[in-house]
Amino acid sequence: MDKIINYINEGNYFIVTSHVNPDGDNIGSTLAMYYYLKSLDKDVYYVLDDDTPINLKFLLKDIEILSSEEFINLNIEQYNLIALDCGDLNRICIDKSIIENSKKLICIDHHASNDNYGDLNYVMPEESSTCELVYNLLKKINEDKNTQVIDQKIATALYTGVVTDTGKFSYSNTHPSTFEMAKELLILGAETNKVICEVYGNNPYNYYKLLGEALNTLDIINNKIAVITLTQDMLNRNNVSFKDTDGITPYCRDIENVEVGILVKEKSSNEIKISLRSKNYVDVSKVAKVFNGGGHVRAAGLTIFNETIENAIKMVVAETLKYI
């Protein structure tokens, strides 16, 4: 933390970014770092080559997110890159040339699969979220400077990340420190009711039509594995974007006797995204790793290319059964 703090203090130009398929911890941690760097009068650019899920757009109303092309066209040299919540160098959602040309790559992350790919790394797999790591970093800055650097905007962003990555404080990655962090963020003005309403209480009608169709695909295997499938036809028929379907994942896992939930999502004709969630004992990151994916013990993901949905399901289920 000290090395990262010192380097931030010395630098002038920064990019903040994260992984593909943005989620709450992705956006919350990146945005909190963006706001903090802005408070230091640094030149900061939020760069991400992906769209934001509809339920997280409220965080970014006043933020300009640049594409890689837009940033490259600015012709900025000697910049530093901070990658947040990205467990793999290849999942950083910007053009590779931006990564390669950065003066220093700083990695802040909590994925167990992270191999410390940065020049400076603050990687703590045991923490609830990357937002908790950013909170720890800012808290240390508070202590060093004897001043409060977490304002309401930062607190709200961090609260969003920790709430979503812990499943509203219900997952096994929720620790006493997580509740302490949430308490402090409440004291600092985090708009908690707004976060819950926007993230969980504003799904469009079409989302529930899609959810109904998705639940009709539910298949239970050996009473321990549940599979739900989303096809492109289902998404198009209900006019729901691929990026707005993560909320369906828990429905796979939250069934009596089921240990592993598998959500299979057809992103295109040759690309299938699979989300894995476990309840008690299966380390789904090991399953994901077999298919060049990654993640956490209880939550992981992978991508299968150039296979039918049926074959993709068979492959992942067969691997998962080894751990049941």
Key terms:
single chain; 324 residues; alpha/beta; inorganic pyrophosphatase (n-terminal core); Diaminopimelate Epimerase, Chain A, domain 1; six-stranded parallel sheet; six-stranded mixed sheet
Describe, in plain words, how this protein is organized in 3D.
- The protein is an alpha/beta fold.
- The protein folds into two domains: 2-199, Alpha-Beta Complex (inorganic pyrophosphatase (n-terminal core)); 205-321, Diaminopimelate Epimerase, Chain A, domain 1, CATH 3.10.310.30.
- Helix content is 40%, strand content 19%.
- The protein contains 13 helices and twelve strands.
- The chain has helices at 2-10, 24-39, 68-72, 96-100, 130-145, 152-165, 176-187, 192-200, 205-215, 232-238, 249-253, 284-290, 309-321, and strands spanning 13-17, 43-47, 65-66, 80-84, 104-109, 120-123, 219-221, 225-230, 260-268, 271-278, 294-295, 299-305.
- The strands form two sheets. A six-stranded parallel β-sheet has the order 3-2-1-4-5-6.
- Helix 5 packs antiparallel against helix 6 (152-165).
- The two termini are 39 Å apart.
DSSP summary: helix tally: 13
Mean pLDDT, to the nearest integer, reads 95
The computed structural class is: alpha/beta
Helix content: 25-40%
Beta-strand level of the residues, as a percent range? 15-25%
Measured between the Cα atoms of the first and last residue, the distance is: 39 Å
How do the helices and strands line up, and which of them pair or pack?
Layout: H1 2-10, E1 13-17, H2 24-39, E2 43-47, E3 65-66, H3 68-72, E4 80-84, H4 96-100, E5 104-109, E6 120-123, H5 130-145, H6 152-165, H7 176-187, H8 192-200, H9 205-215, E7 219-221, E8 225-230, H10 232-238, H11 249-253, E9 260-268, E10 271-278, H12 284-290, E11 294-295, E12 299-305, H13 309-321
Parallel strand pairs: 1-2, 1-4, 2-3, 4-5, 5-6, 8-9
Antiparallel strand pairs: 7-8, 9-10, 10-12, 11-12
